[in-house]
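Hey Z.,

So I finally got round to the flavin-adenine dinucleotide thing we talked about over coffee. Here's the setup:
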Amino acid sequence: MTPSPPPPSPSRESLLARLRSADVFDLIVVGGGATGLGTALDAAARGFSTLLVEAEDFAKGTSSRATKLVHGGVRYLAQGNVSLVREALHERKLLLDNAPHLAQPLPFLVPAYGVAGRFWDLPFYGIGLAIYEALSGSERLGRVGLLGRKRALAAAPGLESKRLAGAIRYWDGQFDDARFAVALARTAIDEGAIVLNYCRARRLIMEGGGVAGVGIEDRETGECFEVRGRCVINATGVWVDALRKLDEPAAADLVAPSQGVHLVVDRDRFPSSSAMLVPKTADGRVLFAVPWLGKVILGTTDTPRHDTPLEPRPFAEEIDFILTEAGRRLAAPLTRSDVRSAWAGLRPLVKPAAGGRDTKRISREHTVEVSPHGLVSVTGGKWTTYRAMAESVLDACMSHGLLPNRPAGVTRHLRLIGAPPRGTATVSITEPPGPHLYGTEAALLATLPGAERMLLPGFSEAMVRFAARHELARSVEDVLARRSRWLFLDARRAADAAEPVGAILRDELGERFDAAASAGEFTRLAEAYRILPLP
Ligand SMILES: Cc1cc2nc3c(=O)[nH]c(=O)nc-3n(C[C@H](O)[C@H](O)[C@H](O)COP(=O)(O)OP(=O)(O)OC[C@H]3O[C@@H](n4cnc5c(N)ncnc54)[C@H](O)[C@@H]3O)c2cc1C
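And the result:
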């Protein structure tokens, strides 16, 4: 029996109307990436009145540009950081359980090659990964196993076979980061929060020697709001220092941005349902090849940057590095013309107290700082641990007397909006894109016109309408980059859908929506995600 559709999701207009009549919030969260959204959800679920404002779209910053791994971090284990890995492995399990439609276990292969007849790599990696599995205890996702050469090639037919000794198989998770962010936003709204994209925090309101609120601008209309809050949380990722400096102009920077690039190629270049981890690249890092939504993501890099553009672009050396290093482990080399989309993200790495420029060695752990005026800044960490980070932000607010004490742990088993009932089979997110909606969400989609009209494979007119009505999408880019992931999968094909998506959005959002401008902006962006062969 098809479940009856739930009531319509709150529109942006209704959320803004609530904001206009609001009094003092318990929490105002600035920044709608993993960190801010996780914090807003935790706060709302504990019954705090909560507002979140995001200057762009949810996950427009770093949170849509991850490698898509839900992981403990094998390489942090190699650095001896056991407590970080243990916490992340625990969070990995909670994340997979609470959103099985957006996050799932995935097998990983670590191929081992013999040099001059020596096959030491296999036992070396095997022991490390067995420790990794042991640290997850009863929350392990699968068994570590040793595959001989033949079984390794059967599991990953695209592997370079010359001198291949075999592979170790271990388990981690993968997810759809931007859709996860949208699900967090919607779940927070469901828990009573006001969550708004395209609203920028322009200034801090100071009163009685402390931060008392935020001046916000609705970027769609230019309307300005003065909003008061007991706690203001600065969760602006690599942009965290800009807001900190509105509070304390002389504050030393917290973040050292580091760029990571990913290239996406067709699945036939690595036709495997397992991911591959290349354990040692020329720069001593690891490189992943991850099957995702019908394509393969290759990455990443770790390049220090001094600027923090909203749309960072890969450097030519980073592209060459990934093509060379991934190509070394594939049966056929890769070239620029194999790349369907190339994107870069900036890691908000927490600066070491005393200098040091090598970002590979800077902590991946997060930092929560409460300024003398009460501004709470949080940065660092990773997607996998967003829930634990949110708890530590609220802990800091409570221990500084900014909020009354309320027990933690309410989000441990809080399922995100759209999660199917336990036990329901879900479509694998390694497979090509489709609606990936279940239960009441699928019923909602079924009420919308245009289910049969496909704009791209697996992507219909009805899904654009769903994004506008239920997922707070406001532009062609919101739909084609973060509600569907076509920009990240195949930039040229995504651009082909810009005009029809614009026309459908105009129908949904009304006459004030400028379809031609939105489609034009997206087309230019998609052009930048393409990697053209060198002349
Ligand atoms: C290349 C790469 C690969 C990664 N891979 C993984 C992975 O596989 N697994 C994993 O667990 N983690 C991974 N991470 C880490 C993870 O993606 C980040 O830790 C996480 O996304 C950071 O989220 P955030 O919310 O802190 O920052 P962001 O996502 O950048 O969010 C900050 C937001 O604040 C907004 N903002 C800024 N100023 C204002 C303002 N004045 N008013 C309102 N809003 C504002 C921005 O628009 C932005 O959306 C990866 C990171 C990178 C760079």
